[in-house]
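Tutorial, part two.
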Amino acid sequence: ATLLGAALAGCAPLLLGSAVVGGGLVATDRRTTGIQLEDEGIERRADSAVRDLATLGHVNVTSYNRVLLVTGEVPSDADKAAIGEALSKVENVKSVVNELGIGQNSSTGSRTTDAFLTTKVKATLVDAKDVQANAYKVVVERAIVYLMGRVTEREAARGTELARSVSSVQKVVRVFEILSEDELANLGRTAAAPAASAPSK
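Running the prediction step on this input gives:
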């Protein structure tokens, strides 16, 4: 799965540092193919649930390994609670992380800045040779960086450090599933197993 190209589909590659974002970066996702498809389905159902509430807010939903992150803005605490409750009932959702802010919807300029910050954070992760960039899913809202993914404690700390190093980032919020080093090693062995068992030609 191409994690870094997803936010920039249809755009020309953007060069930041030594990293090319938006073209040609293909890496292995730590979720199974089935879970990746399930996450896509969860996001569609969550979007539909938000539309059904007819909120005046600006709501974004991101699912990773069935954990649903909710970001954006809504007019009141009651709206935030209603959205959280509705999304907790979406099929296959394991948990909801409700990070909705209370207040006016963000401006177009703010969202443009967030999109650029997303690209900068992803590029910073790619430039760092001591982390696997595609292990992180990056969401930016109001200059707050949300990091999702299945990572070890070392990867969580390093990814957070790298995101914080990006200019204009206000805060980093970790929404990680923490793996042990053994669990990560087992993921690698599982991914390699089909290739190892393939008959030789």
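The beta strands are 14-16, 19-21, 58-64, 67-74, 95-98, 101-102, 137-141, 144-152, 171-179. In part three we will examine how such features are distributed along the chain.
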